[in-house]
Amino acid sequence: MKVLGIETSCDETAVAVYDGDRGLVANRVFSQVALHAPHGGVVPELASRDHIARLLPLIEETLAEAGLPLQAIDGIAYTAGPGLIGALLVGACVARGLGYALRVPVIGVHHLEGHLLAPALEPDAPDFPYVALQVSGGHTMLIEVTGIGRYRVLGETLDDAAGEAFDKTAKFLGLGYPGGPALAAAAESGRPGVFDFPRPMLDRPGLDFSFSGLKTAVVVALRGRELGAQTRADVARGFEDAMVETLVGKALRALTMTGIPTLVIAGGVGANRRLREELDRRVAQAGARVHYPRPEFCTDNAAMIALAGHARLAAGEREDLPVRARARWPLEELRAPGTVPL
Ligand code: KG4
Ligand code: ZN
Fold first, then answer.
1. Given ligand 1 and candidates 172, 299, 305, which is best to mutate, with the most ligand atoms within 8 Å of its CB?
2. Which of 146, 13, 20 is nearest to 72 (CA)?
């Protein structure tokens, strides 16, 4: 079964084709970073309009890359939420319209399910069960994954997401957008220990996170100081160290609490080099394994949506015709493929 995947939940327009026999056969992403950069963050209305302009040409390009005519597609998967509602509706309406015209089944996929299953796009895919650390601009969660559609949220952020904290702190430091990579780059020339920021909630039991205090600590530490290049780099380093230690500490605690020896990293912050190095070291020390999907499967993409949709469509799961798009959609509402009543 060949499934066309469509992702438009935020600021990437993405299309992919996943073939049950051959795996991923085409994968295209158009990033809106340049469009939103002058505004210092994603402007939802601009995102929606750009998805409208980009999506159809991108579908044509992706099919050309796959060497397939539109008629060869057996099913369509689109991101139905969570995300920006106007942006989601673009992908949902195009998917529904195409599916209706082609007379093929269409399924709305949970964006986080896509991220959680993305490791299966890699040749050395981890077996279930695993613990996933989902760290992106919108989410910071630890999730026990025992199968497709079988997710238990172990902990999540009480306020800002990790990526959001990176972005806001970078903006405060005048480092530009998107903030995560910019802050990580600045931290390279920063000295460790010059700024010692709190490790939020690491000293408390449980697996929840909180990052708004860390952001405030940066603001307070810089009050009345000259913000030269070295200070900026030192703050970036201090922030990154605090963030990495918190994420790694909680992830290890999740492995201990569940007794599961496999950790999977998902979401854009998973691209952070220092986070990866520290995880590699500490997870190995704990006798466990850590998997990272390659960076283009960590950040938003349609390959993961096509893969998740394929798993559900191939299991016989079907949806009725209404266009579905949900700005909010609790992950634990999901069920295993084929067990969802129409
Ligand atoms: O998963 P993603 O592409 O989009 C969603 O939020 O769904 O994640 C984007 C987030 C942004 O907040 C970005 O600043 C952060 O991931 N990010 C990073 C790095 N690369 C991307 N944060 C820290 N270090 C990085 N190298
Ligand atoms: Zn995402």
1. 299
2. 20
Q: Is any ligand 1 atom within 6 A of the Cβ of residue 86? A: no
Of the candidates 259, 303, 3, the one whose C-alpha atom is nearest the C-alpha of residue 131 is 259
Q: Could you give the CA distance from residue 67 to residue 258 in angstroms, rounded to a whole number?
A: 44
First to last CA, the chain: 21
pLDDT along the chain (342 residues), means of 10: 97 97 98 92 95 98 98 98 97 97 97 95 95 94 97 96 94 89 96 92 89 92 89 96 97 98 94 95 97 91 98 93 92 88 56
Whose CA is closest to 131, among 122, 141, 121?
141
SS3 (DSSP) at 112: helix
Peptide bond connecting 293 to the previous residue in cis, omega within 30 degrees of 0: no
The CB of 167 under 6 Å from ligand 1? The reply is yes
How many degrees, rounded to 5, is the angle at CA 280 between CA 125 and CA 171? Answer: 100
Tell how far the Cα of 265 is from the centroid of ligand 1, in angstroms.
Answer: 12
Dist CA 295 CA 342 (whole Å): 35
CA of 295 to the centre of ligand 2 (A): 12
Q: Is 99 in the pocket of ligand 1 (CB under 6 A)?
A: no
Domains along the chain with CATH numbers: 2-117+297-333 (3.30.420.40), 128-292 (3.30.420.40)
Torsion of CA 167, 132, 302, 333, to 10 degrees: -100
